[in-house]
Specification:
Mean pLDDT: 87
Number of strands: 7
């Protein structure tokens, strides 16, 4: 179940926190490895499972320009609190609360 939780967190980051805002800007939130995520509490009510966690994540923003190479910035998001919602062993929702720390 532990590996499934990490897979669902990754899926939630892709679905909810990775966006393309038109042809010139992209944003993605990811984690380097499973050691960057600490599961705090897991609870179950019927088919709904909630997983509370703290994670060190990275926010990647890429801006494509017409004449130059794309410009990418990386922002570290340390100690992000999150809740993963799993319904019937499938991704339902992911909520993150964080403050940015730019590098």
């Amino acid at each position: 179940m532990q590996n499934k939780i990490f897979d669902l967190i990754c899926e939630g980051l892709q679905k909810k926190y990775s966006i393309q805002t038109g042809p010139i800007q992209e944003m993605e939130i990811s984690f380097d490895n499973k050691n960057n995520i600490k599961i705090i509490k897991t609870s179950r009510k019927k088919k709904l499972i909630t997983v509370d966690f703290i994670a060190d994540l990275k926010e990647h923003k890429t801006i494509h320009t017409y004449y130059d190479e794309p410009v990418t910035t990386i922002t570290l998001l340390n100690k992000v609190q999150g809740t993963l919602f799993v319904n019937d062993n499938e991704y339902e929702d992911l909520i993150l609360e964080y403050e940015n720390e730019a590098i």
